[in-house]
Amino acid sequence: MEFIFHKIYIPNNHSFITRELDLTDDTIIHSHKNIELNYIVSGTGRRIVGDNISNFEKGDLVLMGAELPHCWELLDADKNEKPRCIVTHFSEEILLNEYFKMPELQNILLLINQASRGIQFKVENDREILNILLRLSKSEGLEYYISLLQIFNLLLKIEDKKKLSNPLNQSSIFSNNIEKINKIYEYVFLNIQEGINLEEASSVINMAPSSFCRFFKKKTGITFMEYVKNVRVGMAAKLLAETDKQITEICYESGYNNLANFNHYFKVSMGVTPTEYRKNFR
C-alpha cells in the first residue's frame, strides 16, 4: 500500500470545487492541503482516515481536515450500480477571509477544526444533503457559495457523528519532512501483518532507532508504537466486522503475537472486547 501527497487543482477564480466522480478502487493512502467533504452516492468498501480503518457504504459522509491521510478501497461492487461519490475540496485560506470571522459562522470554523481527525456523519439516505451536493457540482458563482453554507448548516445540526482518527500533529507532518513521514506510513501499512520492527522502520529514513522515535513523536504527536497499535486495532475491527474468522486468527493477522495483548489493546482503543465488538455487527 502506497502513501503519497496529492495536489488538488482548484481553478484560480474559485475558492472551492465540487465534483461527482466515479469511485475507483484506491489503495493509495494520500493527503492534500485542502479540506475535503466526501459523500458516497453508491458503493461499499473500506475507508482509511488517519489511523482509523472502518467500513463505508452508500450515504457515508466524511469531513476531513487538511493534510489528513486517507483512502477509500472498494469491496465487490454491485454490477447494477456504478460506485459514485461527490467530493468537495476547499483551501484553508478561505477560512482566513473576514467573512468567516462573523459570529454566526464561528461554529463552522469549530467544525472544520474538529475535522483534523476526520468526522463521520450518520446521514444514511438524506435526500436534502444529496440534492444540495448535486447542486454544488453543477453551480457557479454566488449560488455555489450559498449551497456550501447550506451544507455546513445541515452538518452542524447532525448529532449522530464521530471523530475517526486519533489526534495527529498535521501542521508538522507535511512540512520539510513529508518524504520521511510518507516512507514511514508506507512501511507500516506494507508490514502490519508480518510484524513491525523498530530498527527496520528507522532504517527506512536512515535514522538510528532513538532518533527515529523522537522524530516520529515530534511530527505526529504520538509515539511510533502507539501509531502501529492504532493501525492494528483498526485492521482487527475490519476483520471482526467483515469476516467469520476466529478471533485468534484475526489476532495474528493484525500483527499481535498473543491473544492477551490483542484483547487488552483492542478494549483500550475500542471500549469493548473483540467478541463484544463483533456482536454489534451480527
TrEMBL record:
Keyword Chloroplast among record annotations: no
PROSITE patterns, sorted: HTH_ARAC_FAMILY_2
Keywords, ordered alphabetically: DNA-binding, Transcription, Transcription regulation
SMART domains xref list: HTH_ARAC
Residue stretches making up the HTH araC/xylS-type domain: 182-280
Listed InterPro entries: Homeodomain-like_sf (IPR009057), HTH_AraC (IPR018060), RmlC-like_jellyroll (IPR014710), RmlC_Cupin_sf (IPR011051), Tscrpt_reg_AraC-type_HTH (IPR020449)
Molecular function as annotated in GO: DNA-binding transcription factor activity; sequence-specific DNA binding
Superkingdom as given in the UniProt entry: Bacteria
Record bears the keyword Nucleotide-binding: no
Protein known as: Transcriptional regulator
Source organism of this protein record: Zunongwangia profunda (strain DSM 18752 / CCTCC AB 206139 / SM-A87)
